[in-house]
Amino acid sequence: MLDTLRESYFKKTTQFIVINREMIVVASDNCLFHMSTGMDITDFHPFFFSLSELFESEEGEAKQKFYCIQFDILGKTYYIDIETHKQNPTELVIVLNNLTDHYKSVHQIKQVRNESIIGFNITQELNKELEVQRGFKNKFLANVSHEIRTPLNSILGFVSVLENTDISKEQLDILSIIKTSSKNLVTILDDLMDISKIEAGKLEIKNRRFNFLEFIETLGKTYKIRAEDKRLELLIEINEKLPRFLVGDHLRINQIVVNLLENAIKYTHQGSISFKVYTNSVNARRIPVTFEVTDTGVGMPKDKLESIFDSFTQLEKKGLFGGSGLGLSIVKQLTHLLDSDLEVNSEEGVGTTFKFTIHMGVSHNQKKEPSKNVVIRHKTKGKGKKPRILLGEDIEVNQMLMMKLFTDHGGYSLDVAKDGERVLKFLDNYHYDLVIMDITMPRMDGLDTTVHIRNHPNKKIAKLPVIALTARSSEEHQQEAKEVGVNAYLTKPIDTDLLFSTVDKYLNRYKRKPKDNEDEEALS
Amino acid sequence: MSVSKKIVLLGHFGVGKSSLLRRFVENTFSENYVVTIGVHIMKKEVIVSNQKVTLIIWDVEGTDDFTKYRPSYLMGASSFIYVFDASRTVTYNDLKYNLSHLKEKYPLVPVHIIGNKVDLVDKNEVLENLKQQDIQHSYLSSAKTGENVEQLFENVAAQLLENA
Ligand SMILES: Nc1nc2c(ncn2[C@@H]2O[C@H](COP(=O)(O)OP(=O)(O)O)[C@@H](O)[C@H]2O)c(=O)[nH]1
Ligand SMILES: [Mg+2]
Questions:
Q1: A388-509, what's its fold?
Q2: Reported pTM
Q3: Domain B2-148 adopts which CATH fold?
Q4: Whether residue A381 has pLDDT greater than 50
Q5: Among B19, B59, B126, which is best to mutate for testing ligand 1, by the most ligand atoms less than 8 A from CB?
């Protein structure tokens, strides 16, 4: 009984076969597969071809084990372990062990594992490709924005010049349209630059101590006027708990709030805008500060709310670009950079609220810093010798623009050198009081030229004030310029007032330098 | 009697070894990925310079670590075909390392290197990558389109006869 039972189990999983040197089946118990005596075993399955060489080998080597050989027989798949033993020099015993069930479960596990690994690989490859593409895109964006900015600056510059000529009211109106449109273009370019930087992870957050209350008050004043232009009321609420001096990224916060206020004014046609800044904390070191801008504007339906923060990449995918522009997407990303998030609540026809909270350090020094030396106007007119200024600028329209600005303003004499090498030559041959230089110039750029000036053997030349003028407005560039010894950094389009106040400031300082202990009174 | 030769397909899993074999033997292709476990063996007769050769092709379960191959699978091989997936760099980043292992264990067995799935990639990019890694491939193939599949096996067979 036991024997027959054992045999029946045995039979189901194992088959014994004997073959000769010619690969002919000499005997088979046919427990698994039918193999008739006299057949060529390689006709049964090509696996058996590999056994022929075992006849040539030593007895030990002829004993082999092959695991998990797949047999497809009559539409069924079997997984078989195969063992060989050399019976005598002319005969080989083959043992087939059917382990199909076992291997099928192994198969299932491996199927899942391999698929997930391959899926992961593919995602990795895709990401790699996206990274590369994104890198290209960001570089392209940055370059294109820069290229467009240069001609745009000269347009804006000459528009200002034209405004001050004798033209009709109608022409003035047209000019103001050109000006507004060009300024909008500049804003779009700035946005593009910011996006490329954010996406490239190049936008750094710089936390510094600043007069927070004054900052908010100035913002409030500016936007009160802007709102009044549209007959809107701007209500400002600043919570009393807020300290005057905080530590944070003043520039980025400004960028966010300005965007939100602009947006509110743009989409509100009647009613009011409220701007609230508050904290719930009285902590001494670090506090959450919430900024909230609410308008009574057109509002947005729910489905649109979801897409207002779409990144450039998302917009690109959808093939959309325009409408609300990129402002809100940048604002959203900026709040993320500041470890915050921009929340929005909106109801169509009722209004919209944007809100974000950032954590800022509380400055341990809450006293106003001693007021910096008031800018001393350098009134040169009718005071004898005009200060001589050297301008390094390669682009002709920009040269013309500057010459025009300086002539109109009066009180200075301006020479123009068209590259860095010439700037140095001029300095060697003539006396100047100040240098204004474009940073991108052929032969020798503004930064290299500044290095040469600062290392000039003539002490007077080495100490000349240098004002850099450039279309590149990034902080890295400013930092770089500062490091080589540029005194001030002005970006194009040129703000005429800022230009002359900066020029005057440094002319005065430079004059004071040789006699350092002279007091300010004596200078004015 | 015709000669029979054992050829072994090696490489990471999912690179298309089974698909190449199926394309070559049955001229079919499926997008479905069915993992090969152990070894699946197929044969095909080819005629090279008027001589009949039966290729016994062992499609061995893929692995990224060639030291893990069971010796009984590789034993008696006349040729190795090392397949990688041109669309996944992981499948050929370690190619040189694996090759050196083969050279050490089976110094006499020639290795043919095949970059499969070229239908998915920019060929020039792959060629550039291979050049950078100094990988000498024999063919870029596609089991899906059939590109270079027959050629690669015939090339292997021809070389076998030369060596014989
Ligand atoms: N597009 C494309 N897919 C392929 C090609 N060769 C194989 N595949 C697919 O890749 C997956 C893995 O193929 P398979 O032959 O099982 O790979 P193996 O593990 O190396 O045997 C399957 O989904 C196939 O359909 C090819 O040349 N082109
Ligand atoms: Mg396979």
A1: Rossmann fold (3.40.50)
A2: 0.57
A3: Rossmann fold (3.40.50)
A4: no
A5: B19
